[in-house]
Amino acid sequence: MPNNKIKIAVISGGLSNEREVSIKTGQQVFSNLSDENYDKFLVEMTQDGRWLLSGDNLKLGTKFSETKALTIMHPDKGIAKNDLKNFDIVFLALHGKFGEDGKIQSILDILGISYTGSGVLASALGMNKAKTIEFISNTGIKTPKFLFLSDRQNIDLEKINKLIVNDINYPCIIKPNESGSSIGINVVNSFADLEKAIKEAFNEDGQILIEEFIKGREVTCGVLGNSSQTELKALPPVEIIADSTFFDYDAKYFSEKTQEICPADISDKLTEEVQDLAKKIHKVIGCDGLTRSDFILKDNKFYFLEINTLPGLTEQSLCPKEAKAAGMTFAEFLDKQIKLAIEKNKKK
């Protein structure tokens, strides 16, 4: 009797500072994929570049194995092309650099492997906060003002302070340009805090932003769909009420005081507006699969902050809460992302 199950590899871990969150996402995805519909395998990308694959009855070439080190970067440490060809699809549970920035997407494209989420260009653009804000602001959507720094060796604090005072004002947000989970982000209230916050941001990335701090309500909204291929569906938005000054790493993953209200307690008009904005942003960037766009609501106006092209799917993550509010089980939510990935591959 033929096996009609989809053979799927869930890849998590990775090289970025969001590695631990990625592993939780991978485990959550793997455990909720239907055994009836999928032959599933869990892949962990280690920090030293190895790919560890485990699963029942895994057949690679002529050998059966419960655990196999795969390689992609070097002949002695990466995924071999023929190994990946054994899978029908890859579910990307990676976050941050090498997972969300277009790099692994380009490798999978070269190998002809279907994968969840956006393609190379949309992933790379979405990961670059400065480029995304510049791009989105040109569409008429409100965004915060920011300064961009890329030379950590030549930091003139007095000059930067003057630019902040003249163009942005304190308090301001200092953040890495390409990083996630609010790692390396600080709210800076005065010149006295400036140097430390700049150093912390540069520790995470070679480019940083000094961004206008917009005080308001934090609202985020997920979108499902392929930009040039399917109808886009916005999920119910979430309002985040953090005990800290902003929704930082601890507030996201550890604080018991953080409130995530879904659907957000905002008017129907504002709900429709933020959903339309999230769909517009998803489409103009050219995203596929699932994205989540973050906003600040101030004086009944939404300011776009950033887009996540591979949002977290842990038990604490926001998009699964949105999917549940839309009436989906987590397994159905995963199925929709996989179907979109298969559909996306048809147009290549």
Describe the model.
With 348 residues, this protein is of the alpha+beta class. It is 33% helix and 26% strand. It has eleven helices and 16 strands. The strands form three sheets. A six-stranded mixed sheet has the order 4-3-2-1-5-6, with helices on both faces. Strands 11, 12, 13, 14, 15 and 16 form a six-stranded antiparallel sheet that branches. It has a four-stranded antiparallel sheet with strand order 7-10-8-9, with helices on one face. The chain is globular and about 65 Å long. The model is unreliable at 55-79 and 251-255 (pLDDT under 50).
Report a brief summary of the structure.
The protein has eleven helices and 16 strands. The chain is an alpha+beta fold and 348 residues long.
Name its key features.
11 helices; 3 domains; Dna Ligase, domain 1; 6-stranded antiparallel β-sheet; 26% strand; 33% helix; single chain; globular; 348 residues; 16 strands; 6-stranded mixed β-sheet; Rossmann fold; D-amino Acid Aminotransferase, Chain A, domain 1; alpha+beta
SSE topology:
Elements: E1 6-13, H1 19-32, E2 38-45, E3 51-60, E4 63-70, H2 81-84, E5 89-92, H3 103-111, E6 114-115, H4 120-127, H5 129-137, E7 146-149, H6 157-168, E8 172-176, E9 186-188, H7 194-204, E10 208-212, E11 217-224, E12 233-234, E13 238-241, H8 249-253, E14 259-261, H9 268-285, E15 290-298, E16 301-308, H10 318-325, H11 330-346
Please report which band the strand proportion falls in: under 5%, 5-15%, 15-25%, 25-35%, 35-45% or over 45%.
25-35%
- Summing up helix and strand content along with how strands pair, one would put the structural category as alpha+beta
Identify the strand order in the major beta sheet.
4-3-2-1-5-6
* Helical coverage, percent range: 25-40%
What quaternary form is this?
single chain
Task: Please compute the radius of gyration using only Cα atoms.
Answer: 21 Å
Beginning-to-end CA distance, first to last residue: 31 Å
